[in-house]
Amino acid sequence: MDLLYLLLCIFLGTLPMNRIIDGYDPVPHSIKYIVSIQTRLRQHFCGGSLITKYWVLTAAHCNKRIDNMMVVAGDHTLRIYEGTEQEIFPQVLVPHPEFNSQTNNNDIMLIKLQVPVWLNNFVSIIILPRQDATLAPGSMCRVSGWGSINPEGDGISSILQTVKLPIVSSEQCNSSTSYNGYITKHMLCAGYSTGGKDACKGDSGGPLVCDGLLYGVVSWGNECAMPGYPGVYTAVSIYRSWIENTVFSFY
């Protein structure tokens, strides 16, 4: 971690969100596209979204050693075996070639699975928005994950959580009273000006879904649920062409 990144973190009081505050338990297995990314010892550390039977979309900062990663689809309660889980090892990790760990720009990664998931009543895929599609400020979206349920970021939630958040304009998110210019065109913001609801530690890489489409990937923020600092997400629509080209290159 270099000096520039440390200064940025000190200024914003932030680090990337391995990062749901004030959310609720969804109906079990109603969010069928979400996956838990775990170590081989079954320790959850990031979320992701199934975009095909073979491919998961997540954050580039969730890139761990491929030999110590496992993708779990069809889960709801992490600490209980429910009989719906599908555990699959990754075959290839494809982080965006221009990912910048200092600024979190291009914080997006594809994971190709060794075998396809079985699509059933507990597992399905999520559709991507069209290339460069945008959302109006105030549009309501839903972020989900097994991350921490308190702003201090302690531990993770055993039960999947979800919360609805409004899209915040880039201008507001980039204002001097918020992220002060650190939001790029590859990012989008979602949250309330009063804080209180947000993604948090353990939610990184997870889905922000708007109008049934995967518009965002949990990326970073100023701690969790802080007033004036909405969560920051990778804007998936910017990468539609890159995602398709990457996936098709393996066929």
Automatic annotation (TrEMBL):
Species lineage: Eukaryota, Metazoa, Chordata, Craniata, Vertebrata
GO terms of molecular function: serine-type endopeptidase activity
Subcellular location per the Swiss-Prot or TrEMBL entry: Secreted, Extracellular space
Span of domain Peptidase S1: 20-248
An annotated GO cellular component: extracellular space
Pfam families the record matches: Trypsin (PF00089)
GO process terms (BP): proteolysis
Reaction it catalyzes: Preferential cleavage: Arg-|-Xaa, Lys-|-Xaa
Signal peptide annotation: 1-23
Keywords: Disulfide bond, Hydrolase, Protease, Serine protease, Signal
Name by which UniProt lists this protein: trypsin
Protein's UniProt keywords contain Aminoacyl-tRNA synthetase: no
